[in-house]
Design brief:
With 83 residues, the protein is of the alpha+beta class. 24% of the residues lie in helices and 35% in strands. Strand 1 (3-12) and strand 2 (17-25) form a beta hairpin.
Length: 83
């Protein structure tokens, strides 16, 4: 059974990067995880000048993440699993 994390990317309307937030999700499949991430996105305090989007990252049941996700993993949503 896979696990899912949501990576939220915040940026200013002038395209200045404000960073990422990574949240572990309880959803057991991709549809549940997506609904949970959408609910978290709706709870984000986003103003007229700050935007937010998210990407779901699926992590295999037997894979261990002992490092922060890479930029590529955060953007594409594909966990590479290499240490």
């Amino acid at each position: 059974m896979s696990r899912f994390v949501a990576v939220f990317h915040h940026w200013h309307i002038t395209k200045r990067n404000l960073g990422f937030e990574v949240h572990s999700l309880a959803g057991r499949d991709q549809a549940q995880a997506h609904r949970e991430a959408c609910a978290r996105l709706a709870d984000q305090e986003v103003s007229d000048i700050v935007r937010c989007a998210f990407t779901l990252v699926e992590i295999g049941a037997h894979e261990h993440v002992a490092r922060p996700l890479s930029w590529r993993e955060r953007i594409t949503g594909r966990f590479e699993g290499r240490g």
